[in-house]
Amino acid sequence: MSHDLDRRAYELDRAHVFHSWSAQAALDPLVIAGGEGTRVWDSAGTRYLDFSSQLVNVNIGHQHPAVVAAIQAQTAQLTTIGPATANLARGEAAERIVARAPEGFSKVFFTNGGADAIENAIRMARLHTGRDKVISRYRSYHGNTGAAIVATGDWRRIPNEYARGHVHVFGPYLYRSEFWASTPEEESARALHHLERVIQAEGPTGIAAVLLESIPGTAGVLIPPPGYLAGVREICDRYGILLILDEVMAGFGRTGRWFAFEGHDVVPDLITFAKGVNSGYVPVGGVLISDPIAATFDDRVFPGGLTYSGHPLAAASIVATLDAMADEGIVENARRIGADVLGPALRSLAERHDVIGEVRGEGVFWALELVADRTTRDPLPSADMGRLKNDLIGRGLLPFVQDNRIHVVPPCVVTDDDVAEAIGIYDAALAAL
Ligand code: PLP
After folding, report:
1. Quick check: CB of 119 below 6 Å from ligand 1?
2. Which residues contact 27 (CB under 8 A, 6 or more apart)?
């Protein structure tokens, strides 16, 4: 960090910026000043290959020129306008999103990000059904606000449990099965049995919704086994329960599909989105609402709203992002990279390094589960994970490290050459471990 601007950025951060999910004193943030595509850099010119997509959100890559230009054009025309107005950018953003949704979805409620998308989806489900409880999974993340953090299934829920009506179940995760399963089919059937028994025990007529990440992301890129999501849909239908699928991390290209649930033979009632919809160039999220739920609020007030719902800068960036993703085949690129380049390369990495217990994923959404011992599957200790993370950064790669896993989650625009470079870095860092 030799450049004055980098030093100043660092000092100002440490003096005045309060960071998420951290004890503040020991923080040592990396300074980033610029970026393009899959690369970011500081003012001194140190470059990093971004295989985190930041918080798994920069799907289109950094500084996509069409998205930057659309934000600039909207800024010149009308920077902000209240949510009660009709605005062309907002309408076009909603139209573009609806065009990617399953049949029977025509309305979008825009929020400021993913967590408040979850809040509002839960609110809609409760008002539509007249029921109260929400079932979600251990091993999930749904955001930092009132109900979203209590729906969350990781440690972050525990100090924040002020919302009520939340129940958790275990989902399928064959590598660390809670159900003594040895095949994906067994895992799927037993996880469904467990869900249905919890529904029965909680009182089905009091349950508004089952809320699931289509693919739990932060919890480890847990691809649902065959039949699981369709089975959840069938159980929900039998008990009059709504299904909310959280596509905040998995949606808009990450899996090589527009929505992660496509291909799982399931259509939810509500879909939450954020992150990839505009790659976070302007903060935004939202709820895609199926027609019967939207109709509930035709003549009944929807008791929810936000000053920045459908903010025109966010809306313009969504239109440009989704158009560029379609025109440039960016979702197809994510699918091809996953199937033909990144997936095979990660599997061959696992053949060379015993510390990799499992490789799982699709598209540009992968996890390497690191273990101290392949037989016991004991997680690699956090001190080793910390050393590995620092080593990867030192070798010029921004990793996404969570618990005992490296999530390999580059932008959807990643190239074959980027992957080759990243695999070389992972290989060297794992060998040095
Ligand atoms: N839902 C999922 C699946 C997420 O991964 C996240 C964020 O990581 C959220 C919701 C919350 O989104 P935000 O941080 O934009 O509030």
Report:
1. no
2. 14, 19
Which ranges in the chain are annotated with CATH 3.40.640.10?
A: 65-327
Which tens digit of pLDDT belongs to each residue from 241-277? 999 999 999 999 999 999 999 989 999 999 999 999 9
> Atom 5 of ligand 1 has which residue's CA nearest to it?
249
Q: Is the CB of 255 under 6 A from ligand 1?
A: no
pLDDT per position as a tens digit, 172-206: 999 999 999 999 999 999 999 999 999 999 999 99
**Residue 113 beta carbon below 6 angstroms from any ligand 1 atom:** yes
Question: How would you label 238-261 residue by residue, b for 16+ Cβ within 10 Å and e otherwise?
Answer: eeebbbbbbbbbbbbbbbbbbbbb
368 three-class SS = strand
CB neighbours of 326 closer than 8 A, spacing ≥ 6?
none
Q: Which helix (H) or strand (E) holds 166?
A: strand 166-169
Residue with the nearest Cα to atom 7 of ligand 1?
143
CATH number for region 65-327? 3.40.640.10
**What is the rounded CA–CA span in Å between residue 219 and residue 367?**
10
Task: Say which DSSP state 293 is in.
Answer: H
The reply to whether ligand 1 has any atom less than 6 angstroms from the CB of 54 is no
User: Which residue ranges does the chain devote to CATH 3.90.1150.10?
Assistant: 32-63+329-432
Mention every residue, 6+ apart, whose C-beta is less than 8 A from residue 274.
57, 111, 113, 114, 117, 248, 284, 285, 286
Confidence of residue 375 (pLDDT cuts 50, 70, 90): very high
- In tens, the pLDDT along 393-425 reads 999 999 999 999 999 999 999 999 999 999 999
Topology (CATH level 3) of domain 32-63+329-432: Aspartate Aminotransferase, domain 1 (3.90.1150)
Q: Is 248 left (phi over 0), alpha (psi -120 to 50) or beta?
A: alpha
CB distance 285 to ligand 1 below 6 Å: yes
Out of 57, 275, 287, give the residue to mutate to test ligand 1, the one with the largest number of ligand atoms within 8 Å of its CB. 275
Which residues are registered as beta bridge partners of 135? 167, 210
Q: Whose CA is nearest to atom 1 of ligand 1?
A: 142
Count H helices and E strands in the chain, helices first. 14, 15
Report d(CA 246, CA 212) in Å as an integer: 6
